[in-house]
């Protein structure tokens, strides 16, 4: 799932130099100044024929480095937590949880773009795409040609990430739109710890 987790838009127009500078500077400020955020999200997975394969929504909380919580509320309950060492996936309907080492599962995954404090240029070629609607867009192309995704588009809403789109090697894209984002709020440490409810099967890899 995480290898299809981040986002942007199609058919973007070119920006003026002023908007170009603003978009890139806003993105760089976001990654340098934001250590935590709490937001609502809507996620769409779309195939090459522009058909929606999956639509979901929920809440995301993130704390750098290496901690996040994706709480899918609709259409099914699913919880994904990274606690700094392990990635936990809990399926409420199946009453099953799995734990896997983060370094093995998330190496190179797009979610680490948000959760790890490292310069964008270290892993991506960065270029400004332009302004469309209310967002200013920046494109990230992985330097690793064997990456599972071909590019990431990030739409900046002022100094906040408003939307992201990930394009994978198979032509599929995942769009995530953020709303009600709170920057650097106080987030309890327990948010990023998983405790299996009674009766839940826990599988460790």
From TrEMBL:
GO biological process, one term: lipoprotein transport
Keyword Transport assigned: yes
Pfam families in the cross-refs: LolA
Broad class of the protein's primary localization: periplasm
Entries under InterPro entries matching the protein: LolA/LolB/LppX, OM_lipoprot_carrier_LolA-like, OM_lipoprot_carrier_LolA_Pbac
Keywords: Chaperone, Lipoprotein, Periplasm, Protein transport, Signal, Transport
One GO term describing the cellular component: outer membrane-bounded periplasmic space
Signal peptide limits: 1-20
Subcellular location: Periplasm
Transmembrane spans: none
Subunit (UniProt): Monomer.
Family in the record: Belongs to the LolA family.
NCBIfam families: lolA
Summary of the function given for this chain in its UniProt record: Participates in the translocation of lipoproteins from the inner membrane to the outer membrane. Only forms a complex with a lipoprotein if the residue after the N-terminal Cys is not an aspartate (The Asp acts as a targeting signal to indicate that the lipoprotein should stay in the inner membrane).
Protein name (database record): Outer-membrane lipoprotein carrier protein
Lineage of source species: Bacteria, Pseudomonadati, Pseudomonadota, Gammaproteobacteria, Chromatiales
């Amino acid at each position: 799932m995480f290898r299809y987790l981040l986002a942007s838009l199609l058919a973007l127009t070119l920006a003026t130099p002023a908007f170009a500078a603003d978009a890139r500077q806003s993105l760089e400020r976001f990654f340098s100044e934001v250590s935590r955020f709490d937001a609502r999200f809507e996620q769409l997975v779309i195939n090459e024929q522009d058909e929606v394969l999956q639509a979901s929504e929920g809440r995301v909380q993130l704390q750098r480095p290496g901690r996040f919580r994706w709480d899918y509320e609709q259409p099914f309950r699913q919880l994904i937590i990274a606690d700094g060492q392990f990635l936990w996936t809990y399926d409420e309907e199946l009453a099953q949880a799995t734990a896997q080492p983060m370094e093995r599962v998330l190496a190179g995954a797009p979610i680490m773009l948000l959760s790890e404090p490292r310069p964008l240029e270290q892993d991506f070629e960065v270029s400004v795409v332009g302004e469309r609607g209310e967002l200013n867009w920046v494109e990230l192309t992985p330097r690793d040609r064997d990456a599972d995704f071909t590019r990431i588009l990030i739409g900046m809403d002022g100094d906040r990430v408003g939307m992201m789109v990930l394009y994978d090697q198979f032509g599929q894209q995942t769009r995530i739109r953020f709303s009600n984002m709170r920057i650097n709020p106080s987030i309890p440490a327990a948010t990023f710890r998983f405790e299996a409810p009674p009766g839940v099967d826990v599988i460790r890899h």
